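Entry 14. Ran structure prediction on the chain below.
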Amino acid sequence: MERIRQNMAGYRMPSYVEEILTQNYCPGFMRMSIIREEDRYAFSYKTDSFARLDPPRMRLYDKLLLVRNLISMSETSSDHLINAESYLIEPELVYARRGRVDIDSLRLMYYPDVKMLDFRYKIVIFADRIMSREIREEREMAARIREAAEAGDVNRIKMFLDKTLSRMESAAD
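Output, structure tokens:
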């Protein structure tokens, strides 16, 4: 079993968040342990059967589904008192079983976001990073996600993704 370790200083995590993460109460995060010494943390993640996703090798449909499922995962984490603004959402922190992007196969490596960036913008930045700039269709999708975020809230992004994914599924049939 592989372990990944990260260190952080100058941050104070609420004890209830430590409990939720270390007891694995929130299913969207990787299993982890936390060692705290004053304002320094050592995070240790158990990867088990999960491996880091490789977005450049993914189809557009899977990239859009990944973004949609990250939104759903953020809603679940919020239900567990961990708001999406409090953790980073970066391609390097997304792990999956067998490269699948269904919600049960995805896990995020929890790492605090000290800037507390608005979740809409995290999603926009994430989509920009996983979409290929060389492929026109992917570049346009990233721009449309950005437009949806600027025009409203996360629900507008969800509606855009749901409609787009539905159209793509219908076209494949």
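The chain has one domain: 50-172. Will compare against last week's run tomorrow.
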